[in-house]
Amino acid sequence: GSSGINAEYGGNVVLAKENTNSCDNQCAATEFSECDADVAIQGVLGRAGSYTENVGQFYNYGCSTPGNTAVAYDSVKAEDDEALFKGLNLQRYSQYYRFCCCRFPS
Question: Over 50: is that where the pLDDT of 25 sits?
Answer without folding.
Answer: yes
